[in-house]
Amino acid sequence: MEFKNTLYEKKEGIATVIINRPKALNALNEETLLEISSRIADAKQDENVKVIIITGAGDRAFCAGADLNMMKGATAYKGMRLSQIGQKVTREIEDIGKPVIAVINGYALGGGLELAMACDLRIAAENAQMGQPEVNVGLIPGWGGTQRLPRFVGKGKAKEMIFTGKRIDAKTAEQIMLVNLVVPLEQLKSAAKELAQDLMNKPPIALQLTKQLINNSTETDLKIGLTNEAEAFGVLSSTEDFKEGVSAFLEKRKPQYQGK
Ligand code: CAA
C-alpha cells in the first residue's frame, strides 16, 4: 500500500499515527481512512507496540472531519459506504487490544471528533475546538457520533451539540468529560509521551481486558457485564504479570511486566 496522507512512527513501544493533510486541516478522505486502518493493523500485530497515539500534522487541526470534497454528488449508496468505512476504522481502534490515545492538536470536528471518541483517552491542546458540525451541511455524524457522543456526554448535551453544530473549546470538553486532559499546545507532545510511557509500564493483558470490559459495558446488561468481569479477573489471576506484580510489591521494587 502506498502511504500518502499519513505518517507512522514506532519508537520505544509507542506507535504514532499522524494524519498528514495539514492544508486540508487533516480532513479524512477514503484513502486516508484506509491508510489509518492499515497503520492500526500494523500496530495491532507488532508485539513491540504497547501504546498507540493518533494525532494530526501541524498545529491547527487534529482532523476537520470527513473530506467534504469526496462527498460532493454522493449517491445514497456511496454515502452509506463512506459511513461504513469510517465506522470500520473506529471499530478497529476499539478492538485493537492496546491503549489508543487521541492527541488533539486543534480542530476535532465531525469525523475528527468521532475518530477521537473511538480512542481510549483524549489529551487536547488549549486551542483545540471540538464539535459535530455536520448539520450545517445537511448531514448527521456518520462515523459513530450519534452513538458514542451521548455515551460520553449524555443524550441532552449530545443533541445540543449535534442539533446546533456549535463548537466547544477544550476546557468545556474537559468539563463534560469528552477529553481527559487539557494542556498548552507546546506541552501537548510531552504530555502525550508521558501518558503513553506510564501506560507502557502497566501489565498489557490487564489493560487489554479493561479496555474490552469498559467498551462492552454500555452494550451488555449489568449481570452479563459482571460475569465477564469475574472471568477476566480469573484470567488475570493466572498470569505471570500478576505473579510479578505481587512479587514486586512485596520486594519493594518496580514490576517488569511481560504481557504473559
Ligand atoms: N473537508 C475538506 N476540506 C476541508 C475540511 C473538510 N472537512 N475542513 C477544512 N478544509 C479545508 C478548507 O476547504 C480549506 O482548504 P483551501 O485552503 O483549499 O480552501 C482549508 O482546509 C482550511 O480551511 P478554512 O480556510 O475553512 O479554515 P478556517 O480557519 O477559516 O476554518 C474550520 C476552519 C472552522 C475547521 C472550517 O474549515 C470548517 O468549518 N471546516 C469544515 C468542518 C466540517 O464541517 N466537518 C464535518 C465534515 S462532515 C463529516 O465529518 C461527516 C462525518 O461524520 C463522517
How does this model look, in words?
The chain is an alpha/beta fold and 260 residues long. The chain has 2 domains: 6-200, 2-enoyl-CoA Hydratase, Chain A, domain 1 (Alpha-Beta Complex); 204-251, Lyase 2-enoyl-coa Hydratase, Chain  A, domain 2, CATH 1.10.12.10. 48% of the residues lie in helices and 16% in strands. It has 11 helices and 10 strands. The chain has helices at residues 30-45, 68-71, 76-94, 111-118, 145-153, 155-164, 170-175, 188-200, 204-217, 222-237, 240-250, and strands at 6-11, 14-19, 51-56, 61-63, 100-104, 107-109, 121-125, 129-131, 168-169, 181-183. The strands form 2 sheets. Strands 1-2-3-5-7-10 form a 6-stranded mixed β-sheet, with helices on both faces. α1 (30-45) packs parallel to α3, α4 (111-118) packs across α5 (145-153) and α9 (204-217) packs antiparallel against α10. It starts with 5 loop residues before the first strand and ends in a 10-residue tail after the last helix. The model has no long low-confidence stretch (mean pLDDT 97).
Question: What distinguishing features does this structure have?
Answer:
binds acetoacetyl-coenzyme A, six-stranded mixed β-sheet, 260 residues, alpha/beta, 2 domains, four-stranded mixed β-sheet, 2-enoyl-CoA Hydratase, Chain A, domain 1, globular, single chain, 10 strands, Lyase 2-enoyl-coa Hydratase, Chain  A, domain 2
Strand content: 15-25%
Helical residue percent band: 40-55%
Evaluate the radius of gyration.
19 Å
Total number of domains: 2
CATH class of the largest domain: Alpha Beta
Structural class: alpha/beta
> Taking all residues together, what is the mean pLDDT?
97
Bound molecules: acetoacetyl-coenzyme A
First-residue to last-residue Cα separation: 33 Å
